[in-house]
Request: fold
Amino acid sequence: MAQAAQTPRAAQPARAAQTEQPAPATIGNSEFDRDTAVVRRGPGLYDAQLSEGWTIIEAVNGGYLLAILGRALGEALPHPDPFTITAHYLTASRPGPAEVRTETVRTGRTLSTGSASLIQRNEDGSEVERIRVTAHYGDLDDLPDDVRTTAKPPAIPPYEHCLGADAAPDAALIPGSSAITDRLDLRLDPATAGWAVGAPSGRGEMRAWFGLADGRDADPLSLLLAVDALPPTAFELGLMGWVPTTELTVHVRCRPAPGPLRIAISTRNLAGGFLEEDAEVWDSQDRLVAQSRQLARALPV
Amino acid sequence: MAQAAQTPRAAQPARAAQTEQPAPATIGNSEFDRDTAVVRRGPGLYDAQLSEGWTIIEAVNGGYLLAILGRALGEALPHPDPFTITAHYLTASRPGPAEVRTETVRTGRTLSTGSASLIQRNEDGSEVERIRVTAHYGDLDDLPDDVRTTAKPPAIPPYEHCLGADAAPDAALIPGSSAITDRLDLRLDPATAGWAVGAPSGRGEMRAWFGLADGRDADPLSLLLAVDALPPTAFELGLMGWVPTTELTVHVRCRPAPGPLRIAISTRNLAGGFLEEDAEVWDSQDRLVAQSRQLARALPV
Reply:
């Protein structure tokens, strides 16, 4: 909270008063909540609607999709919060109707385990599986308060000195949908934004402030979105091609405090056409609230 | 290969000649291969025998179990090598018969996806699921040779200056089985072995040379064992209790070269009774051959 004066949330009330900006959205009543809603249709079976609002170019964001699956598992299992959740991406999801089929693998006192599939239909009506997920769920509020972490929050300039989508030069404009950028309040550390002006740093690092554009605070489900919301580290390594996720695992370690998040992503090993992307997500109280790793392909342009 | 003079494999021939030590075991003909064998009983269905040889105290090693599941998936899927494999541990496995049930989720040109369950029977004959796995498989030999990694091998003293199980003082002796230590050629960096003499470093780090005791070289399946074979980093953080794995994800990035491996494990975040353990495995040619992360519980003594 020591950095509250640097954060967008603290700066908003003054602006809102001047421009009659709407009040910030709340957890449970926001675009993210509406677009990740699942409707129970039978035991372990849920209907979902994949929104065009979370697409980039032609792809539906993988973290948004994971949040839908995570929400269905949270309803199907006796525990509310994803402690560790792994998605294997199979085929490219499309905006439109989808079905989530959950299986309760095991229920325990402190942890429950479930798996889930996201299913869509081809034009000929045949089913196609998009994503397979397995996860342990628990209750973050039941965890003891001990913190013996040696990890430190990322060194990132104040929010006001970081770069939003409006600061992107024409060179960074991407053909196709950029709908997701309107829904995020994402501010890149200028030190990791060289790729946008054709001068990538050569280091596999990306750092940013992260929030939802409508002011909704973070919760465990929006953390699943946050870990996959930054530009690929591959851009800073000089590879501007498509970087599809094959597998993504997220550990949610703590319920995030209100206020903006800081995210640091790093890649150590780009080899054989694959790279890992590790993300750390820190909340406004300097708690490491989520850690993730994905294995992505680096496809040629 | 520059470090071959420091390695146990290079030192063995001379010793073998003097003591008539048996020739090193080979991939496909070793205790590890026999103890991870699966016998096909039907479509996607395999019988396995969990060996007592890979136990520590009362637990069957989680990496050994993952290797059995990984082997069954390698037989069931059209591709041979695990590229990314995730295990959710449900209940404690016991030495004895087990069944692996695989499902082919998707087959693609370069990647196939499968899931697998390890099943055992309770004394009353009822089934109990031990582990649920999901994985992408591919062929490591088909990957391009590009390496743009920024990762560096761990700084670890030569093999001869590291500590084997025979160097452990009485204080480090653990009640119960230590069978697995006989099957591994594990040499700890003395800088990360303070826990064994009651002087943990306070840093969540563990580094070691790793091989199989019978001299079998590493392959993708034995890498699944390697990432979970070191003492827990929690020991160096001063926590000497049980540290059961809840989830483990391994990325196999390269087929390992012959010769010993170097493994570095680190923990950044111990909080709320959970900790992550990240492992990097390096081969004798200084290639980063595997990366893993697990979420473990830190249970009180």
